[in-house]
Amino acid sequence: MVIEKLNLCNYRNYETLDLNVDSKTNILYGDNAQGKTNILEAIYICSTTKSHRGGKDKEVIKFGCDDAHIKIYINKKNKEYRIDIHLKKNKSKGIAINGIPIKKASELFGIFNVVFFSPEDLNIIKNGPSERRRFIDLELCQLDKLYVYNLLNYNKILNQRNKLLKDLYFKPDLEETLDVWDLQLAKYGSEVIKRRSEFVKKINEIINPIHKKITDNKENIIVKYDKNCDELELYNQLVLTREKDKKYKTTNVGPHRDDLSFYYDDMNVRIYGSQGQQRTAALSLKLAEIEIVKSIIHDTPVLLLDDVLSELDSKRQNELLNSLENVQTIITCTGLDEFIENRFKINKIFKVKEGK
Ligand code: ATP
Ligand code: MG
């Protein structure tokens, strides 16, 4: 799939923007704080409904304005799609696909797939487990509607269970109701775990050859997600930790506490790896992500590279840019040296200056 056109109105530092992108490699270059990442962010919102930066929807509205519009035109297997996002100051956002408003934001998932790569992603191995859960959740939500359904229900019930654990102190009679929540939590939680396990299995089928190429065959990488628990097993674990949960007034087991670990053969990269090894593992993971998305959607996602090239040495830059064949890519950078030195083919260059 490719983006054909992007329009912005009162979005961050853009009053208006009308951008016709090339179907291959596009560069957005300019000094710091000119609006490069803002463009990638707007595209990302059209895919996931949320900013990659986190934060509140209204933060993207241009200072002094009441609302912002993003409009994106996509060509997917020769079919045209238009996604309109209307972000409002004090109301929830409106989303329309080909002019037809959708009721739930999750209906947008899967229409338009992007892979976003920023310098923070290079720290995914050394950061805390929540970053790795966020990675897997964002990916699966784009690819699997049932995952979204199970995860949303799981999180809803988890919140209710945690609220109950807090209320128990004042109303101990409520303890009997805990079992109802545990049954539900086990039902949705085991589905979340099952789908995460399948996803990690797919990563492992793809990541090692990519990684070996980047490291000149020196290292084998394995991603571990040591969870294989069915509904009954998760329910039993919840029952077993009830006393602890009551004491800490929160739920201590379940997929909301999951983590992924990365190993070079027997070595845990997060604990023992050098910074370079951790970043290389992160790059391999990102490259594997592109391949997985391709294989699941039977199409190419759009790749957004925010300032990552300057963070990589030239061998890794080459690996990354060479893997982009046939994938529409939008790259932000402050200079063009890397492209000139490596003689990479660029199809369109945009200079970004003060929101123009
Ligand atoms: P860098 O190279 O430093 O990453 P960039 O070109 O990617 O820079 P952006 O992150 O796109 O820069 O931000 C550009 C500008 O947008 C910043 O100067 C910021 O102050 C401005 N900005 C952010 N939010 C808003 C907003 N809601 N309204 C107006 N301007 C905003
Ligand atoms: Mg930026």
TrEMBL record:
Predominant localisation class: cytoplasm
Protein's name in the database: DNA replication and repair protein RecF
Chain ranges of the RecF/RecN/SMC N-terminal domain: 3-355
Gene3D superfamilies: P-loop containing nucleotide triphosphate hydrolases, RecF/RecN/SMC, N-terminal domain
Family of this protein: Belongs to the RecF family.
Compartment(s) of residence: Cytoplasm
Keyword field: ATP-binding, Cytoplasm, DNA damage, DNA repair, DNA replication, DNA-binding, Nucleotide-binding, SOS response
InterPro entries: DNA-binding_RecF, DNA-binding_RecF_CS, P-loop_NTPase, RecF/RecN/SMC_N, RecF_2
Source taxon at top rank: Bacteria
Function field: The RecF protein is involved in DNA metabolism; it is required for DNA replication and normal SOS inducibility. RecF binds preferentially to single-stranded, linear DNA. It also seems to bind ATP.
Positions of ATP binding: 30-37
Name of a matching Pfam family: SMC_N
